[in-house]
Amino acid sequence: MDTSQGMSPVVDNNLTLPPIADAAAAPRIDCRNIKVFYGETQAIHDVSMSFPDRAVTALIGPSGCGKSTFLRCLNRMNDTIENCRVEGQILMDGENINDADVDPVLLRSRVGMVFQKPNPFPKSIYDNIAYGPRIHGLANGREDLDAIVEKSLRRAGLWDEVKDRLMAPGTGLSGGQQQRLCIARAIAVQPEVILMDEPCSALDPIATARIEELIDELRNRYCIVIVTHSMQQAARVSQRTAFFHLGNLVELGDTSQIFTNPREKRTEDYITGRFG
Amino acid sequence: MSDHIVSAYSEELERLSADIMKMGGIVETMIVDASRALGANDLELAKEVVLRDPLVDAIEADAERQIVSLIARRQPMGHDLRMILSAMKISSELERIGDLAKNIAKRAQRLDENVNPEMRNAIIRMSQPVSRQLNDVLNAYATANADKAKAVWSSDDDIDHHYNSVFREMLTYLVEDPRRISAGAHMLFMAKNLERIGDHCTNIAEFVYYQAVGDYLSELERPKQNQV
To answer: Which residues 67-96 on chain B approach chain A with CB closer than 8 angstroms?
Structure first.
Protein backbone atom coordinates (compact mmCIF):
# COMPACT_ATOMS: atom_id res chain seq x y z
CA MET A 1 0.00 0.00 0.00
CA ASP A 2 1.23 3.46 -0.87
CA THR A 3 1.54 5.13 2.50
CA SER A 4 2.40 8.46 0.91
CA GLN A 5 -1.34 8.77 0.42
CA GLY A 6 -1.63 9.00 4.17
CA MET A 7 -4.25 6.27 4.35
CA SER A 8 -2.21 4.14 6.70
CA PRO A 9 -4.37 1.95 8.92
CA VAL A 10 -5.34 3.04 12.38
CA VAL A 11 -3.03 0.57 14.06
CA ASP A 12 0.01 2.31 12.59
CA ASN A 13 -0.65 5.23 14.86
CA ASN A 14 -0.88 3.14 17.95
CA LEU A 15 1.14 -0.02 17.67
CA THR A 16 4.32 0.78 15.76
CA LEU A 17 5.22 3.78 17.86
CA PRO A 18 6.40 3.89 21.43
CA PRO A 19 3.65 4.60 23.94
CA ILE A 20 2.56 8.20 24.16
CA ALA A 21 4.02 10.05 27.10
CA ASP A 22 1.53 10.38 29.92
CA ALA A 23 -0.38 13.59 29.30
CA ALA A 24 -0.78 14.24 32.99
CA ALA A 25 2.95 13.91 33.56
CA ALA A 26 4.10 16.44 30.96
CA PRO A 27 1.19 18.24 29.39
CA ARG A 28 1.88 20.97 26.88
CA ILE A 29 -1.44 22.56 27.74
CA ASP A 30 -3.30 21.88 30.95
CA CYS A 31 -6.93 23.02 31.10
CA ARG A 32 -8.61 23.23 34.48
CA ASN A 33 -12.32 23.77 35.06
CA ILE A 34 -12.98 25.58 31.80
CA LYS A 35 -16.38 27.20 31.53
CA VAL A 36 -17.42 29.23 28.51
CA PHE A 37 -20.48 31.47 28.34
CA TYR A 38 -22.03 33.21 25.37
CA GLY A 39 -24.00 35.86 27.22
CA GLU A 40 -26.25 33.91 29.55
CA THR A 41 -25.82 30.63 27.72
CA GLN A 42 -23.18 28.26 29.01
CA ALA A 43 -21.44 26.50 26.12
CA ILE A 44 -18.75 24.60 28.06
CA HIS A 45 -19.38 23.08 31.48
CA ASP A 46 -16.37 22.70 33.71
CA VAL A 47 -14.04 20.84 31.37
CA SER A 48 -10.62 19.76 32.63
CA MET A 49 -8.22 17.99 30.32
CA SER A 50 -4.63 18.24 29.25
CA PHE A 51 -2.88 17.94 25.92
CA PRO A 52 0.39 16.00 25.69
CA ASP A 53 3.31 17.15 23.59
CA ARG A 54 4.12 15.30 20.37
CA ALA A 55 0.72 13.74 20.06
CA VAL A 56 -2.52 14.40 18.25
CA THR A 57 -5.63 14.81 20.35
CA ALA A 58 -8.93 14.69 18.48
CA LEU A 59 -12.06 16.42 19.75
CA ILE A 60 -15.22 14.78 18.46
CA GLY A 61 -18.92 15.21 19.10
CA PRO A 62 -22.16 16.25 17.42
CA SER A 63 -22.66 19.78 16.09
CA GLY A 64 -23.04 22.29 18.85
CA CYS A 65 -21.36 20.13 21.48
CA GLY A 66 -18.75 22.79 22.22
CA LYS A 67 -15.69 21.16 20.72
CA SER A 68 -14.82 24.14 18.49
CA THR A 69 -15.58 26.59 21.29
CA PHE A 70 -13.23 24.62 23.52
CA LEU A 71 -10.54 24.52 20.84
CA ARG A 72 -10.80 28.28 20.40
CA CYS A 73 -10.13 28.78 24.11
CA LEU A 74 -6.67 27.36 23.63
CA ASN A 75 -5.39 30.41 21.76
CA ARG A 76 -7.95 32.92 23.01
CA MET A 77 -9.82 33.12 19.74
CA ASN A 78 -12.98 33.52 21.80
CA ASP A 79 -11.67 36.97 22.87
CA THR A 80 -12.78 38.21 19.48
CA ILE A 81 -16.39 37.21 20.11
CA GLU A 82 -18.52 39.76 21.86
CA ASN A 83 -20.39 38.44 24.91
CA CYS A 84 -18.09 35.47 25.19
CA ARG A 85 -16.63 34.81 28.63
CA VAL A 86 -14.09 32.11 29.52
CA GLU A 87 -13.54 30.94 33.10
CA GLY A 88 -10.96 28.55 34.45
CA GLN A 89 -7.27 28.10 33.93
CA ILE A 90 -5.42 27.18 30.76
CA LEU A 91 -1.80 26.61 31.68
CA MET A 92 1.11 26.61 29.27
CA ASP A 93 4.47 26.25 30.97
CA GLY A 94 2.71 26.96 34.25
CA GLU A 95 1.34 30.29 33.03
CA ASN A 96 -2.37 30.97 32.63
CA ILE A 97 -2.87 32.14 29.06
CA ASN A 98 -5.94 34.10 30.13
CA ASP A 99 -3.90 36.33 32.43
CA ALA A 100 -4.18 40.01 31.62
CA ASP A 101 -0.45 40.36 30.91
CA VAL A 102 -0.42 37.68 28.22
CA ASP A 103 -0.32 39.19 24.74
CA PRO A 104 -2.83 37.28 22.61
CA VAL A 105 -0.85 37.97 19.45
CA LEU A 106 2.27 36.39 20.93
CA LEU A 107 0.17 33.57 22.32
CA ARG A 108 -1.21 32.83 18.87
CA SER A 109 2.31 32.53 17.49
CA ARG A 110 2.91 29.82 20.08
CA VAL A 111 -0.48 28.26 19.48
CA GLY A 112 -1.11 28.30 15.74
CA MET A 113 -4.46 27.61 14.15
CA VAL A 114 -5.72 26.12 10.92
CA PHE A 115 -9.35 26.63 9.97
CA GLN A 116 -12.03 24.69 8.18
CA LYS A 117 -11.81 26.81 5.06
CA PRO A 118 -8.30 27.54 3.80
CA ASN A 119 -7.74 31.27 4.29
CA PRO A 120 -4.45 32.32 2.70
CA PHE A 121 -3.69 36.04 2.70
CA PRO A 122 -4.31 37.72 -0.68
CA LYS A 123 -0.54 37.81 -1.14
CA SER A 124 2.13 35.68 -2.77
CA ILE A 125 2.88 32.19 -1.53
CA TYR A 126 6.18 33.51 -0.20
CA ASP A 127 4.62 36.40 1.69
CA ASN A 128 1.96 34.17 3.21
CA ILE A 129 4.74 32.30 5.00
CA ALA A 130 7.08 35.25 5.54
CA TYR A 131 4.44 37.47 7.15
CA GLY A 132 4.52 35.89 10.61
CA PRO A 133 8.31 35.62 10.96
CA ARG A 134 8.58 39.25 9.80
CA ILE A 135 6.19 40.72 12.34
CA HIS A 136 7.61 38.57 15.14
CA GLY A 137 11.19 39.44 14.12
CA LEU A 138 12.19 35.82 13.72
CA ALA A 139 14.39 36.32 10.64
CA ASN A 140 17.76 38.06 10.32
CA GLY A 141 17.72 39.33 6.80
CA ARG A 142 16.50 38.08 3.50
CA GLU A 143 18.51 34.86 3.39
CA ASP A 144 17.27 33.79 6.77
CA LEU A 145 13.69 34.53 5.76
CA ASP A 146 14.13 32.52 2.54
CA ALA A 147 15.33 29.61 4.64
CA ILE A 148 12.33 29.83 6.98
CA VAL A 149 9.94 29.94 4.02
CA GLU A 150 11.56 26.90 2.43
CA LYS A 151 11.70 24.92 5.67
CA SER A 152 8.07 25.67 6.49
CA LEU A 153 6.89 24.74 3.01
CA ARG A 154 8.94 21.55 3.13
CA ARG A 155 7.48 20.57 6.49
CA ALA A 156 4.02 21.21 5.15
CA GLY A 157 4.81 18.98 2.18
CA LEU A 158 4.19 21.79 -0.28
CA TRP A 159 7.70 22.85 -1.32
CA ASP A 160 8.08 20.67 -4.41
CA GLU A 161 4.75 21.83 -5.75
CA VAL A 162 5.34 25.57 -5.32
CA LYS A 163 9.12 26.17 -5.33
CA ASP A 164 9.03 27.51 -8.90
CA ARG A 165 6.20 29.95 -8.28
CA LEU A 166 6.76 31.39 -4.84
CA MET A 167 5.69 34.84 -6.02
CA ALA A 168 2.38 33.58 -7.42
CA PRO A 169 -0.70 34.43 -5.33
CA GLY A 170 -1.51 31.91 -2.57
CA THR A 171 -5.15 32.10 -3.49
CA GLY A 172 -4.33 30.56 -6.89
CA LEU A 173 -3.49 27.19 -5.34
CA SER A 174 -5.92 24.31 -5.13
CA GLY A 175 -7.95 23.89 -1.94
CA GLY A 176 -5.70 21.18 -0.53
CA GLN A 177 -2.57 23.17 -1.40
CA GLN A 178 -4.07 26.28 0.20
CA GLN A 179 -4.72 24.32 3.38
CA ARG A 180 -1.14 23.08 3.43
CA LEU A 181 -0.03 26.67 2.81
CA CYS A 182 -1.99 27.70 5.89
CA ILE A 183 -0.31 24.93 7.87
CA ALA A 184 3.09 26.12 6.58
CA ARG A 185 2.15 29.64 7.64
CA ALA A 186 1.30 28.41 11.13
CA ILE A 187 4.56 26.45 11.36
CA ALA A 188 6.71 29.39 10.19
CA VAL A 189 6.44 31.20 13.52
CA GLN A 190 7.74 28.14 15.42
CA PRO A 191 4.62 27.32 17.40
CA GLU A 192 4.45 24.73 20.15
CA VAL A 193 0.85 23.82 19.53
CA ILE A 194 -1.19 23.59 16.33
CA LEU A 195 -4.97 23.77 16.56
CA MET A 196 -6.97 22.49 13.61
CA ASP A 197 -10.68 23.15 13.27
CA GLU A 198 -12.05 20.63 10.76
CA PRO A 199 -9.05 21.19 8.48
CA CYS A 200 -10.21 18.69 5.84
CA SER A 201 -13.93 19.22 5.67
CA ALA A 202 -13.62 21.33 2.52
CA LEU A 203 -11.14 18.99 0.82
CA ASP A 204 -11.43 15.97 -1.44
CA PRO A 205 -10.18 12.54 -0.25
CA ILE A 206 -6.74 12.85 -1.86
CA ALA A 207 -6.10 16.30 -0.41
CA THR A 208 -7.46 15.00 2.90
CA ALA A 209 -5.03 12.09 2.82
CA ARG A 210 -2.14 14.50 2.20
CA ILE A 211 -3.16 16.62 5.19
CA GLU A 212 -3.49 13.51 7.34
CA GLU A 213 -0.05 12.36 6.26
CA LEU A 214 1.23 15.81 7.16
CA ILE A 215 -0.43 15.72 10.59
CA ASP A 216 1.25 12.39 11.22
CA GLU A 217 4.66 13.93 10.47
CA LEU A 218 4.01 17.14 12.38
CA ARG A 219 3.18 15.31 15.55
CA ASN A 220 6.84 14.39 15.93
CA ARG A 221 7.43 18.06 16.76
CA TYR A 222 4.19 19.59 17.97
CA CYS A 223 1.24 19.17 20.24
CA ILE A 224 -1.68 18.96 17.83
CA VAL A 225 -5.36 19.36 18.66
CA ILE A 226 -7.85 18.64 15.91
CA VAL A 227 -11.60 19.09 15.79
CA THR A 228 -13.18 16.80 13.25
CA HIS A 229 -16.63 15.64 12.25
CA SER A 230 -15.18 12.54 10.65
CA MET A 231 -14.77 9.81 13.24
CA GLN A 232 -12.72 7.84 10.76
CA GLN A 233 -10.37 10.78 10.53
CA ALA A 234 -10.11 11.03 14.31
CA ALA A 235 -9.39 7.30 14.40
CA ARG A 236 -6.75 7.61 11.68
CA VAL A 237 -4.78 10.62 12.87
CA SER A 238 -5.07 10.89 16.63
CA GLN A 239 -3.56 9.06 19.56
CA ARG A 240 -6.08 10.41 22.05
CA THR A 241 -9.71 11.22 21.52
CA ALA A 242 -12.07 13.35 23.57
CA PHE A 243 -15.83 13.07 23.11
CA PHE A 244 -17.89 16.19 23.85
CA HIS A 245 -21.64 16.36 24.23
CA LEU A 246 -23.79 19.33 25.24
CA GLY A 247 -20.76 21.25 26.43
CA ASN A 248 -19.47 18.43 28.62
CA LEU A 249 -16.38 16.32 28.19
CA VAL A 250 -17.99 12.89 28.28
CA GLU A 251 -14.99 10.68 27.74
CA LEU A 252 -11.28 11.02 27.07
CA GLY A 253 -9.07 8.07 26.24
CA ASP A 254 -6.64 6.39 23.90
CA THR A 255 -8.07 6.58 20.41
CA SER A 256 -8.08 2.81 19.92
CA GLN A 257 -9.96 2.36 23.19
CA ILE A 258 -12.54 5.06 22.39
CA PHE A 259 -13.32 3.49 19.02
CA THR A 260 -13.30 -0.18 19.99
CA ASN A 261 -14.46 -0.13 23.58
CA PRO A 262 -15.77 3.21 24.85
CA ARG A 263 -16.67 3.25 28.52
CA GLU A 264 -19.56 5.70 28.30
CA LYS A 265 -22.86 4.81 26.69
CA ARG A 266 -23.16 8.26 25.08
CA THR A 267 -19.78 7.77 23.41
CA GLU A 268 -20.78 4.31 22.19
CA ASP A 269 -24.06 5.65 20.80
CA TYR A 270 -22.30 8.50 19.02
CA ILE A 271 -19.47 6.55 17.43
CA THR A 272 -21.74 3.73 16.30
CA GLY A 273 -24.25 6.11 14.73
CA ARG A 274 -27.07 5.68 17.25
CA PHE A 275 -27.39 9.28 18.38
CA GLY A 276 -30.76 10.75 17.66
CA MET B 1 -29.07 -1.32 22.52
CA SER B 2 -31.00 1.31 20.60
CA ASP B 3 -31.14 1.28 16.82
CA HIS B 4 -28.81 3.05 14.46
CA ILE B 5 -29.91 6.27 12.84
CA VAL B 6 -29.45 4.38 9.57
CA SER B 7 -31.91 1.56 10.15
CA ALA B 8 -30.52 -0.59 7.32
CA TYR B 9 -27.30 -0.86 9.33
CA SER B 10 -29.16 -2.35 12.30
CA GLU B 11 -30.95 -4.74 9.98
CA GLU B 12 -27.68 -5.90 8.45
CA LEU B 13 -26.18 -6.57 11.87
CA GLU B 14 -29.28 -8.46 12.95
CA ARG B 15 -29.18 -10.57 9.83
CA LEU B 16 -25.52 -11.42 10.39
CA SER B 17 -26.15 -12.41 13.97
CA ALA B 18 -29.20 -14.49 12.95
CA ASP B 19 -27.07 -16.32 10.38
CA ILE B 20 -24.46 -17.13 13.03
CA MET B 21 -27.21 -18.52 15.25
CA LYS B 22 -28.60 -20.53 12.36
CA MET B 23 -25.16 -22.03 11.69
CA GLY B 24 -24.81 -22.80 15.39
CA GLY B 25 -28.17 -24.54 15.44
CA ILE B 26 -27.28 -26.72 12.46
CA VAL B 27 -23.89 -27.84 13.77
CA GLU B 28 -25.42 -28.52 17.18
CA THR B 29 -27.92 -30.96 15.67
CA MET B 30 -25.14 -32.43 13.56
CA ILE B 31 -23.28 -33.44 16.73
CA VAL B 32 -26.41 -34.79 18.41
CA ASP B 33 -27.51 -36.73 15.30
CA ALA B 34 -24.03 -38.06 14.57
CA SER B 35 -23.97 -39.47 18.06
CA ARG B 36 -27.53 -40.85 17.74
CA ALA B 37 -26.59 -42.47 14.44
CA LEU B 38 -23.59 -44.04 16.11
CA GLY B 39 -25.64 -45.34 19.05
CA ALA B 40 -28.38 -46.84 16.87
CA ASN B 41 -26.03 -47.80 14.05
CA ASP B 42 -28.36 -45.74 11.85
CA LEU B 43 -26.39 -45.40 8.60
CA GLU B 44 -29.11 -43.36 6.89
CA LEU B 45 -29.04 -40.74 9.63
CA ALA B 46 -25.22 -40.70 9.52
CA LYS B 47 -25.36 -40.05 5.76
CA GLU B 48 -27.88 -37.32 6.26
CA VAL B 49 -25.63 -35.60 8.82
CA VAL B 50 -22.78 -35.58 6.27
CA LEU B 51 -25.09 -33.89 3.76
CA ARG B 52 -25.80 -31.00 6.13
CA ASP B 53 -22.19 -29.84 6.11
CA PRO B 54 -22.29 -28.02 2.72
CA LEU B 55 -25.15 -25.90 4.08
CA VAL B 56 -22.96 -24.83 6.99
CA ASP B 57 -20.15 -23.97 4.58
CA ALA B 58 -22.53 -21.95 2.44
CA ILE B 59 -23.80 -19.92 5.41
CA GLU B 60 -20.22 -19.27 6.49
CA ALA B 61 -19.28 -18.03 3.01
CA ASP B 62 -22.32 -15.79 2.96
CA ALA B 63 -21.58 -14.45 6.44
CA GLU B 64 -18.08 -13.59 5.29
CA ARG B 65 -19.46 -11.63 2.34
CA GLN B 66 -21.81 -9.77 4.66
CA ILE B 67 -18.90 -8.95 6.97
CA VAL B 68 -16.68 -7.62 4.18
CA SER B 69 -19.53 -5.48 2.96
CA LEU B 70 -20.32 -4.17 6.46
CA ILE B 71 -16.71 -3.20 7.08
CA ALA B 72 -16.34 -1.54 3.69
CA ARG B 73 -19.61 0.36 3.76
CA ARG B 74 -20.32 1.08 7.42
CA GLN B 75 -16.87 1.52 9.00
CA PRO B 76 -18.12 -0.13 12.19
CA MET B 77 -17.00 1.25 15.55
CA GLY B 78 -17.32 0.27 19.20
CA HIS B 79 -19.64 -2.62 19.98
CA ASP B 80 -20.63 -2.95 16.32
CA LEU B 81 -16.99 -3.47 15.36
CA ARG B 82 -16.53 -6.09 18.06
CA MET B 83 -19.74 -7.82 17.05
CA ILE B 84 -18.66 -8.02 13.41
CA LEU B 85 -15.15 -9.24 14.21
CA SER B 86 -16.58 -11.85 16.58
CA ALA B 87 -19.07 -12.99 13.94
CA MET B 88 -16.19 -13.51 11.53
CA LYS B 89 -14.27 -15.60 14.05
CA ILE B 90 -17.27 -17.50 15.40
CA SER B 91 -18.52 -18.44 11.94
CA SER B 92 -15.19 -20.04 11.10
CA GLU B 93 -15.16 -21.88 14.44
CA LEU B 94 -18.66 -23.18 13.71
CA GLU B 95 -17.61 -24.23 10.24
CA ARG B 96 -14.78 -26.26 11.81
CA ILE B 97 -17.19 -27.82 14.29
CA GLY B 98 -19.40 -28.78 11.34
CA ASP B 99 -16.45 -30.50 9.67
CA LEU B 100 -15.64 -32.43 12.83
CA ALA B 101 -19.27 -33.51 13.33
CA LYS B 102 -19.38 -34.57 9.69
CA ASN B 103 -16.25 -36.60 10.22
CA ILE B 104 -17.83 -38.40 13.19
CA ALA B 105 -20.85 -39.24 11.02
CA LYS B 106 -18.59 -40.50 8.24
CA ARG B 107 -16.69 -42.76 10.61
CA ALA B 108 -19.97 -44.03 12.07
CA GLN B 109 -20.64 -45.50 8.63
CA ARG B 110 -17.27 -47.27 8.47
CA LEU B 111 -17.49 -49.35 11.64
CA ASP B 112 -17.34 -53.11 11.21
CA GLU B 113 -19.17 -55.81 13.20
CA ASN B 114 -16.38 -56.12 15.79
CA VAL B 115 -17.36 -52.92 17.58
CA ASN B 116 -19.06 -53.57 20.92
CA PRO B 117 -21.87 -51.49 22.51
CA GLU B 118 -19.55 -50.26 25.27
CA MET B 119 -17.34 -48.62 22.68
CA ARG B 120 -20.34 -46.86 21.13
CA ASN B 121 -21.54 -45.80 24.57
CA ALA B 122 -18.17 -44.31 25.48
CA ILE B 123 -18.40 -41.92 22.50
CA ILE B 124 -22.06 -41.10 23.12
CA ARG B 125 -21.31 -40.33 26.77
CA MET B 126 -18.58 -37.96 25.71
CA SER B 127 -20.74 -36.27 23.07
CA GLN B 128 -23.27 -35.13 25.66
CA PRO B 129 -21.14 -32.61 27.56
CA VAL B 130 -19.71 -31.46 24.23
CA SER B 131 -23.08 -30.64 22.69
CA ARG B 132 -24.14 -29.09 26.00
CA GLN B 133 -21.02 -26.94 25.86
CA LEU B 134 -21.93 -25.80 22.35
CA ASN B 135 -25.51 -25.15 23.38
CA ASP B 136 -24.34 -23.06 26.35
CA VAL B 137 -21.95 -20.98 24.30
CA LEU B 138 -24.59 -20.36 21.62
CA ASN B 139 -26.97 -19.21 24.34
CA ALA B 140 -24.26 -16.93 25.67
CA TYR B 141 -23.88 -15.55 22.14
CA ALA B 142 -27.61 -15.05 21.64
CA THR B 143 -27.96 -13.20 24.92
CA ALA B 144 -24.54 -11.47 24.77
CA ASN B 145 -23.87 -12.88 28.23
CA ALA B 146 -20.19 -12.54 29.17
CA ASP B 147 -20.60 -14.51 32.42
CA LYS B 148 -22.08 -17.50 30.63
CA ALA B 149 -19.31 -17.30 28.03
CA LYS B 150 -16.70 -17.28 30.76
CA ALA B 151 -18.36 -20.27 32.43
CA VAL B 152 -18.12 -22.27 29.19
CA TRP B 153 -14.55 -21.15 28.74
CA SER B 154 -13.48 -22.34 32.18
CA SER B 155 -15.32 -25.67 32.02
CA ASP B 156 -13.49 -27.09 29.00
CA ASP B 157 -11.37 -29.20 31.35
CA ASP B 158 -14.44 -31.43 31.96
CA ILE B 159 -14.32 -32.41 28.30
CA ASP B 160 -10.59 -32.92 28.49
CA HIS B 161 -11.17 -35.28 31.45
CA HIS B 162 -13.78 -37.13 29.41
CA TYR B 163 -11.41 -37.44 26.51
CA ASN B 164 -8.64 -38.84 28.68
CA SER B 165 -10.94 -41.45 30.17
CA VAL B 166 -12.46 -42.45 26.80
CA PHE B 167 -8.95 -42.79 25.41
CA ARG B 168 -7.93 -45.19 28.20
CA GLU B 169 -11.22 -47.09 28.00
CA MET B 170 -10.83 -47.61 24.24
CA LEU B 171 -7.31 -48.94 24.75
CA THR B 172 -8.59 -51.61 27.13
CA TYR B 173 -11.18 -52.77 24.54
CA LEU B 174 -8.49 -52.94 21.88
CA VAL B 175 -6.14 -54.84 24.13
CA GLU B 176 -8.93 -57.34 24.95
CA ASP B 177 -9.63 -58.08 21.30
CA PRO B 178 -7.31 -56.93 18.49
CA ARG B 179 -10.10 -57.47 15.92
CA ARG B 180 -11.59 -54.24 17.28
CA ILE B 181 -8.56 -52.23 16.21
CA SER B 182 -10.08 -50.91 12.97
CA ALA B 183 -13.30 -49.73 14.65
CA GLY B 184 -11.32 -48.60 17.69
CA ALA B 185 -9.10 -46.39 15.56
CA HIS B 186 -12.21 -44.72 14.11
CA MET B 187 -13.60 -44.26 17.57
CA LEU B 188 -10.41 -42.74 18.93
CA PHE B 189 -10.69 -40.21 16.12
CA MET B 190 -14.32 -39.58 17.04
CA ALA B 191 -13.27 -38.92 20.62
CA LYS B 192 -10.51 -36.63 19.42
CA ASN B 193 -13.01 -34.81 17.19
CA LEU B 194 -15.32 -34.28 20.14
CA GLU B 195 -12.43 -32.98 22.19
CA ARG B 196 -11.56 -30.56 19.36
CA ILE B 197 -15.18 -29.41 19.22
CA GLY B 198 -14.86 -28.60 22.91
CA ASP B 199 -11.80 -26.47 22.12
CA HIS B 200 -13.69 -24.64 19.40
CA CYS B 201 -16.47 -23.94 21.90
CA THR B 202 -13.90 -22.33 24.21
CA ASN B 203 -12.70 -20.19 21.31
CA ILE B 204 -16.27 -19.12 20.60
CA ALA B 205 -16.66 -18.30 24.30
CA GLU B 206 -13.62 -16.01 24.03
CA PHE B 207 -15.17 -14.12 21.11
CA VAL B 208 -18.56 -13.86 22.84
CA TYR B 209 -16.77 -12.44 25.87
CA TYR B 210 -14.76 -10.01 23.72
CA GLN B 211 -17.89 -8.87 21.92
CA ALA B 212 -19.75 -8.23 25.15
CA VAL B 213 -16.98 -6.77 27.29
CA GLY B 214 -14.35 -5.48 24.85
CA ASP B 215 -11.62 -7.28 26.77
CA TYR B 216 -9.81 -10.57 26.26
CA LEU B 217 -10.07 -13.68 28.40
CA SER B 218 -6.48 -14.44 29.20
CA GLU B 219 -5.22 -17.81 28.08
CA LEU B 220 -3.16 -18.07 31.23
CA GLU B 221 -6.07 -18.45 33.61
CA ARG B 222 -7.64 -21.41 31.92
CA PRO B 223 -7.10 -24.92 33.31
CA LYS B 224 -5.84 -27.51 30.82
CA GLN B 225 -6.46 -31.20 31.37
CA ASN B 226 -5.88 -32.84 28.01
CA GLN B 227 -2.92 -35.19 28.55
CA VAL B 228 -2.95 -37.12 25.29
So the answer is: 75-82
Cβ of B9 and A273 within 8 Å? yes
**Residue A89: CB partners within 8 Å, gap ≥ 6?**
A30, A31, A32, A33, A34, A96, A98
Report which of residues A2 and A69 the model is more confident about: A69
Cβ neighbours of residue A48 under 8 Å, at least 6 residues apart?
Answer: A31, A32, A33, A34, A88, A249
Q: Please name the member of B5, B82, B215 whose beta carbon is closest to the beta carbon of A273.
A: B5
Task: Determine, for residues A276 and B5 on separate chains, whether the beta-carbon distance falls below 8 Å.
Answer: yes
Cβ-based neighbour number of residue A232 at 10 Å? 12
Asked if residue B136 lies in contact with residue B152, where contact means CB atoms within 8 angstroms, the answer is yes
Cα–Cα distance, B76 to B71 (Å, whole number): 6
Domain limits of chain A? 3-16+26-120+193-271
Q: Are B9 and A275 an interchain contact pair (Cβ–Cβ within 8 Å)? A: no
Determine the Cα–Cα distance for residues A173 and A180; give it in Å rounded to an integer. 10
Specify the amino acid at residue B100: L
Closest CA to B140 of B77, B90, B195: B90
Contact B82 A260 (CB under 8 A): yes
The interface pTM score, or ipTM, of the predicted complex is: 0.80
d(CA A9, CA A259): 14
Q: How confident is the model at residue A14 (pLDDT cuts 50, 70, 90)?
A: very low
Q: Give domain A3-16+26-120+193-271's CATH number out of 3.90.1740.10, 3.90.1150.10, 3.40.50.300, 3.40.50.1100.
A: 3.40.50.300
Minimum distance, in Å, between the CA of residue A188 and any CA atom of chain B? 37
Buried b (16+ CB within 10 A) or exposed e, A54-74: bbbbbbbbeeebbbbbbbbbb
Domains of chain B as residue ranges with CATH: 7-221 (1.20.58.220)
Give the confidence band of B157 by pLDDT, cuts at 50, 70, 90.
Answer: confident
Q: What percent of chain B has a predicted confidence (pLDDT) above 90? A: 91
Task: Answer whether residue A11 shows pLDDT above 90.
Answer: no
Query: How far does A190 lie from chain B, in Å, by closest CA?
Result: 37
